[in-house]
Amino acid sequence: MRIAIGGQVEKQEIQQLVKAAGGEQVNVVIKSDLEAAMLIKSGGADYYLGACHTGGGGALAMAIALLGKPQCATISMPGKKPVKEQVEQAVESGAKAFGFTGDHKEQAVEYVMGALLKQYT
Predict the structure, then answer these.
(1) 80 and 40 Cβ atoms separated by less than 8 Å
(2) Cα dihedral angle (91, 38, 63, 114), rounded to 10 degrees?
(3) Euclidean distance between CA atoms 70 and 77, whole angstroms
(4) Element containing residue 58 per DSSP (H, E)
(5) How far apart are CA 115 and CA 64, in angstroms?
(6) Cα distance between residue 15 and residue 12, in whole Å
(7) What's the confidence (pLDDT) of residue 58?
(8) Fewer CB within 10 Å of terminal CB in the chain, N or C?
(9) What letters, b where the CB count within 10 A reaches 16 and e where it falls short, cover 13-48?
(10) Half-sphere exposure of residue 49, counting CA atoms within 13 Å on the CB side?
(11) Could you give the CA distance from residue 70 to residue 81 in angstroms, rounded to a whole number?
């Protein structure tokens, strides 16, 4: 599974969390939000994860513009932590890009990677 890390904050930490969760099953690259969204659109990556301070602005703006809103999911916002069932539903609905706030990165990556890895096993 190929994961592109975009967004505006916490990129190195998110990359480490994705690698820890996915192990040998994931290939992770860090790009600008535009480059990461382009990788998804071109088929160069399977999924996009990005963080910003709002969970949807800088984290997902380019992904929404290039992929369309139905393929994007804001899974956390200030004061609203990720909910495992909602993340699983977004994955099952075909979301390819996931945005969240930097302070929720551990839980967001855990839920997203758990849902994605279920599809690959």
Answers:
(1) no
(2) 30
(3) 18
(4) helix 57-67
(5) 21
(6) 5
(7) 87
(8) C
(9) ebbebbbebbeeebebeebebeebbbbbbeeebbbb
(10) 35
(11) 21
Spelled out in words, what is the top-level CATH class assigned to the domain 2-120? alpha beta
Token code pair at residue 65: 């513009």
Placement of tokens 């990359």 in the chain: 15
Angle in degrees, 0-180, between the axes of helices 84-92 and 105-120, rounded to the nearest 10? 40
pTM above 0.90, yes or no: yes
Tokens representing residue 28 in the block: 């992770």
Phi-psi region of 10 (alpha: psi -120 to 50; beta: other; left: phi over 0): left
Q: State the Cα–Cα distance between residues 65 and 51, nearest whole angstrom.
A: 16
pLDDT tens for the chain, 121 residues long, are: 999 999 999 999 999 999 999 999 999 999 999 999 999 999 999 999 999 999 888 899 999 999 999 999 999 999 999 999 999 999 999 999 999 999 999 999 999 999 999 987 6
